[in-house]
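Why should sequence recovery work at all? Because a backbone constrains its sequence more than one might expect. Tight turns favour small or flexible residues, buried strands favour hydrophobic ones, and helices have their own preferences. The token representation captures these environments compactly. In the example below, the structure is given first.
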């Protein structure tokens, strides 16, 4: 009987451990193709697919916490989140030692974008004083000295898609966008209306970081991300949204 009870307890503990969710941070400022939010819940997108596959391979259900960007780091510090993805180490230079970084998973340039004029490349420092479409809470190191000098002014929107919508509607002459969102946005526009990049502001390697805690299988998560990157799975997920284009 004692052996039977011990076996039953072991099975119960294993089931409990298997059902402990892996909690992912989702910024409410993300837009497609990163994440589609429907009624406050992610339903598709490159990051959604990557995080869901990661959780499945680790053997835990995925739990998505949709938060304002300003709340994400606070949630991590309060142990409310286990994994945060699509983040650069340069954004968080003072990250505590109880977090572990993954290998770089994506490279995304920040672009200065305009409507289908002008046809030539733009030097941001040479622009006259005007508003630039930006995402609320995002930092733009290349443009920050120009914002500080009041040469350029931020016109914040809640997410990246709204920034491009405002640009298309003529609210600003220029806006900042990552490459993925620009390409996704342009897919629904006729060629003569598509927004175009006029300057590369910066390019950074992005990955995930994981809370290093006994309750989180941190090393298994990091090893799984390496396999997903090296096997080409992550690039295959990107191709699902852009066809053959990586």
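From this structural description, the recovered sequence reads:
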């Amino acid at each position: 009987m004692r052996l039977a009870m011990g076996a039953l307890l072991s099975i119960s503990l294993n089931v409990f451990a298997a059902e402990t969710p892996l909690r992912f941070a989702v910024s409410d400022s993300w837009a497609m193709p990163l994440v589609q939010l429907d009624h406050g819940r992610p339903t598709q997108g490159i990051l959604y697919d990557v995080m869901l596959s990661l959780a499945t391979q680790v053997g835990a259900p995925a739990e998505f916490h949709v938060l304002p960007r300003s709340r994400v780091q606070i949630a991590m510090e309060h142990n409310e989140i286990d994994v945060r993805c699509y983040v650069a180490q340069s954004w968080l230079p003072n990250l505590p030692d109880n977090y572990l970084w993954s290998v770089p998973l994506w490279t995304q340039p920040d672009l200065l974008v305009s409507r289908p004029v002008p046809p030539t490349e733009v030097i941001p420092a040479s622009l006259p004083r005007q508003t630039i479409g930006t995402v609320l809470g995002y930092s733009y190191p290349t443009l920050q000295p120009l914002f500080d000098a009041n040469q350029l002014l931020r016109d914040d929107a809640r997410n990246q898609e709204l920034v491009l919508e405002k640009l298309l509607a003529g609210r600003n002459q220029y806006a900042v966008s990552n490459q993925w969102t620009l390409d996704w946005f342009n897919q629904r526009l006729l060629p003569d209306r598509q927004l175009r990049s006029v300057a590369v502001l910066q390019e950074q390697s992005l990955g995930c970081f994981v809370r290093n805690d006994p309750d989180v299988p941190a090393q298994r998560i990091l090893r799984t991300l390496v396999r997903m990157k090296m096997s080409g799975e992550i690039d295959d997920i990107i191709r699902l949204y852009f066809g053959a284009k990586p």
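A few observations help interpret the result. The longest helix spans residues 2-19.
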